[in-house]
Amino acid sequence: MAKFYGVGVGPGEKSLITLKAVEILKKVDMVVAPSKGEGSIAYSIAKPHIRGEVVFMDFPMTYNKKELKSKWEENAEKIRKFLISGKDVAFITIGDPTIYSTYIYLLKELEGFEVETVPGISSYSAAAASLNLPIAQGRQNFAVVSSDDPEEIEKILDLFGTVILMKVSRNYDIIVKLLEEKGFIGHLVIRCGHDDEKITRNLEEYIGRKVDYLSLIIAKKEK
């Protein structure tokens, strides 16, 4: 039976893809890229290293669980057929495959097949590096949270001195207010690792504006 790989290609900068990811991409028969056409960010990073066939699969950005599940099952079935036919398949994803990735859902649907997950550099690790900002040192703890639930964010801000907020576009204005109330200094990183990357500590600049989906905040409590 063929093998299925989940390959993290890093946050966006083409040189941040790992040697192992490159090795896998060069040897597999097929690479599956999320999104449509060459608009896929993961594909634009991986493209120079791909030797086999490329298949683009649409994964809708929706909160409709029924629609999502149906699409995941449909795409997983396509991959299952490729594997049964004897083709090694790599599914590519930006960042790391185990952090907020569509790959996680495919992994559940492909139980029974041989699988290897290839880690990638996460967006928040790359963002901290761009800032020359230590995430944690000594015995410090830190939290990485999605930004769906403002009440949950507020609780976490009370527990940790360093908080990384992912997908901040969903509740940006509320998050900025909470950080100010809780005494945090925030660093907003937009499209980390891309040519149009933006970094700012002036969080208020983006209040009331549409913030790019690929945005995060690294927040540290003032001493």
UniProtKB/TrEMBL annotation:
<protein>
    <recommendedName>
        <fullName>Tetrapyrrole methylase domain-containing protein</fullName>
    </recommendedName>
</protein>
<keyword id="KW-0949">S-adenosyl-L-methionine</keyword>
<dbReference type="InterPro" id="IPR014777">
    <property type="entry name" value="4pyrrole_Mease_sub1"/>
</dbReference>
<dbReference type="GO" id="GO:0009236">
    <property type="term" value="P:cobalamin biosynthetic process"/>
</dbReference>
<keyword id="KW-0489">Methyltransferase</keyword>
<dbReference type="InterPro" id="IPR012382">
    <property type="entry name" value="CobI/CbiL"/>
</dbReference>
<dbReference type="InterPro" id="IPR014776">
    <property type="entry name" value="4pyrrole_Mease_sub2"/>
</dbReference>
<keyword id="KW-0169">Cobalamin biosynthesis</keyword>
<keyword id="KW-0808">Transferase</keyword>
<comment type="pathway">
    <text>Cofactor biosynthesis; adenosylcobalamin biosynthesis.</text>
</comment>
<dbReference type="GO" id="GO:0030788">
    <property type="term" value="F:precorrin-2 C20-methyltransferase activity"/>
</dbReference>
<comment type="similarity">
    <text>Belongs to the precorrin methyltransferase family.</text>
</comment>
<feature type="domain" description="Tetrapyrrole methylase">
    <location>
        <begin position="3"/>
        <end position="202"/>
    </location>
</feature>
<dbReference type="InterPro" id="IPR000878">
    <property type="entry name" value="4pyrrol_Mease"/>
</dbReference>
<dbReference type="InterPro" id="IPR035996">
    <property type="entry name" value="4pyrrol_Methylase_sf"/>
</dbReference>
<dbReference type="Pfam" id="PF00590">
    <property type="entry name" value="TP_methylase"/>
</dbReference>
<dbReference type="InterPro" id="IPR006364">
    <property type="entry name" value="CobI/CbiL/CobIJ_dom"/>
</dbReference>
<dbReference type="GO" id="GO:0032259">
    <property type="term" value="P:methylation"/>
</dbReference>
